[in-house]
């Protein structure tokens, strides 16, 4: 991932509404909240585009690794766009690139990644992604590996 992330490097965007409670005592959005925004954009895509049934489906995604780099402060009442892309797509896991942009900005205020491993809900053993989910994620792949 580049030190400077721009909106043109992302394939899917979700508006994020900041909330008063997102700010911390320092007057900006608390660092842990950024991960909530990351999780929100990824899961929104999985549910709405990939058909992931988070309530009753046999397969769920577990986050096993994450990172966030903070470039500029965000604060309530900023309106944001969360950008999503897929950097690596396997049969059982996916690495997302995610960035947060102020509503009309092209430079990311924060960017990072996280890795989902798809597992059987009951056994928590890694399983292959269903075709619809994998196809949806494939549409977001950037810099595909040969």
Topology summary:
Blueprint: E1 12-17, H1 31-48, E2 59-70, E3 79-89, E4 93-102, E5 110-120, H2 131-138
Antiparallel strand pairs: 1-3, 2-5, 3-4, 4-5
Report on this structure.
- Strands 1-3-4-5-2 form a 5-stranded antiparallel sheet.
- A hairpin with a 7-residue loop joins strand 4 and strand 5.
- The chain is globular, with a radius of gyration of 15 Å.
- The mean pLDDT is 94.
- The longest helix is centred in the first third of the chain and has 18 residues, at 31-48.
- With 146 residues, the protein is of the alpha+beta class.
- It has helices spanning 31-48, 131-138, and strands at 12-17, 59-70, 79-89, 93-102, 110-120.
Intertermini distance? 18 Å
Helical amount among residues, as a percent range?
Answer: 10-25%
Helices and strands, in N-to-C order? EHEEEEH
Q: Largest beta sheet: what is the strand line-up?
A: 1-3-4-5-2
Structural class given helices, strands, pairing? Answer: alpha+beta
The major β-sheet equals: 5 strands, antiparallel
Report the portion of residues in β strands: 25-35%
The number of helical elements comes to: 2
Radius of gyration over C-alpha positions, nearest whole angstrom? 15 Å
- Identify low-pLDDT runs: none
């Amino acid at each position: 991932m580049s030190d400077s992330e721009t909106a043109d490097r992302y394939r899917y965007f979700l508006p994020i509404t900041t909330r008063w409670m997102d700010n911390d005592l320092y007057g900006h959005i608390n660092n842990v909240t950024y991960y909530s925004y990351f999780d929100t954009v990824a899961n929104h895509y999985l549910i709405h585009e990939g058909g992931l049934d988070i309530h009753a489906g046999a397969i769920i995604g577990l986050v096993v690794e994450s990172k966030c780099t903070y470039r500029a402060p965000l604060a309530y009442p900023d309106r944001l766009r969360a950008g999503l892309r897929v950097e690596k797509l396997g049969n059982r896991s996916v690495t997302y690139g995610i960035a947060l942009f102020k509503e009309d900005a092209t430079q990311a205020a924060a960017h990072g990644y996280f890795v989902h491993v798809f597992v059987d809900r009951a056994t928590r053993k890694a399983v292959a992604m269903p075709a619809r989910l994998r196809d949806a994620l494939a549409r977001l792949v950037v810099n595909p590996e040969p």
